[in-house]
Amino acid sequence: MTSDLDPTHNKELSARTAELSDAVGTSVVTLQAQFLGSRGERQQAQARGRLAVLRRSAGFTPEQHPLALQDVLDALDPALRQEDLGRGDAASPTERAAFDAMTLFALHMQSATEPMHVRGRSFGSAMSLLRSRSESGSLKPRFDALLAARDQRSRLTHARSLITLLRGEKIGFDYGMFARDLRTLASPHRAGVLLRWGRDFATPPRRSPEGTSSDSAAASALPATPSA
């Protein structure tokens, strides 16, 4: 039997998390474009309904909301490999990562008027940008609590709370990367993800010559919707 400590298995896991990142990233770009109205009123209404269902599942488990998991799996493009699907009555780690990323994305998009999926910006970098805009002294302790959480459900509870703050400041991040990180956190090598999040949080956003955050400038430069 292989383990996540085996180099061959680790390489395979890396390839599969990259596939998960692509699938979630493609799916949220489509949902985002539909929600923001660039695909027509009919698709906008459908996206609003789908995101409302997913949003109500944010913070829960796939087992608690099996219909939402079904909706997530149906939305993924491309679909998950057979070997990444769960067996029996429990969701697989990959299914959980996709479910958590997409339900939190739905929470992030609530009442949004601009993209909250921003390609290339990590969760930690988004939190760093929020920190640069906030005068609250509680933000770092809240982020530290996420990094120190002993289990995935506690970590996601903290992430859900922080994402509501990001939503309030209209700061987005890359949900494909986030799904990949959540899947990696389910393996013994999770420390690397937490290290990256902590490093990104501690790195101040770069400033352009005009004094505008380069992270914000990069986000605005990204296309809000992909070509169909």
Automatic annotation (TrEMBL):
This is Type I-E CRISPR-associated protein Cse2/CasB. Residues 202-228 are annotated as: Disordered. The gene is casB. CDD domains: Cse2_I-E. InterPro entries: CRISPR-assoc_prot_Cse2, Cse2_sf. NCBIfam families: casB_cse2. Residues 212-228 have a biased composition (Low complexity). It comes from the Bacteria.
